[in-house]
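[Automated response] Your request has been received and processed.

Submitted sequence:
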Amino acid sequence: MTGPVSDHYERLLGPVYSWMVGDVDAATARAEAELDAIGLPSNATGTAVDLGAGFGLHSLPLARRGYKVIAIDTCEPLLQELRSRAGAFTIRTVNANLLDLRAYVARPAELILCMGDTLTHLPDAASLDALFSRVAATLCPGGLFVATFRDYVSTPLQAEARFILVRSDANRILTCFLEYSDTTVQVHDVLHERVAENWQMRLSSYAKLRLAPEQVMKALASHGFSVQREAGLNGMVRVLARLTGR
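Generated structure:
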């Protein structure tokens, strides 16, 4: 995305994102297992698009399965990390807005992923609908779109639960605070880092959409998808949407 979300990642989250994830090999193994749970083939030949690819938690397992991967993200430091981790795999990285995906996919894709909490980074409901329209136009007939996102609607956090310790070690502490409004949740990230003998604090915030699972499924169905809801990793909602036509 562009604007506050992109700025937030460039300034604060991007350079520490892989540290925030923790054990990258374990996280990649969980992503691989998630692709298995989705039912993706172990040997593929088609095109897969990874929206909000980050440093490649899903792009790399897709490439190992044989997909021709196009990884799209607005955070260049994360894409640079993806390229450094790709090794012999050919993954096309694109620093662009998710909504511009059609400009970078020359042939119909068999698979489009939008994992993590990327959908909630869209600025409004109209952008969500626009994304689904462009995903439908990019997929081949019968193609699969898979997205995961956090449900900030059904069970909003309250009181002290809005303070989340994301990760800490001897030299770095990342804490998150959430503020809810009617349609968004404001995310405040507080990063403490040890520099020599002193601690330095950096702050940044951005808004996420509050998306109800039913809202996402209805929007996908309106664009010709057959939609299935599942439980994703780490409490996320996972939707599998197969393009069936109108």
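Summary generated for your ticket: The helical segments are 4-21, 24-38, 59-64, 76-86, 125-138, 213-221. Residues 4-21 form the longest helix (18 residues).
If you did not submit this request, please reply to this message.
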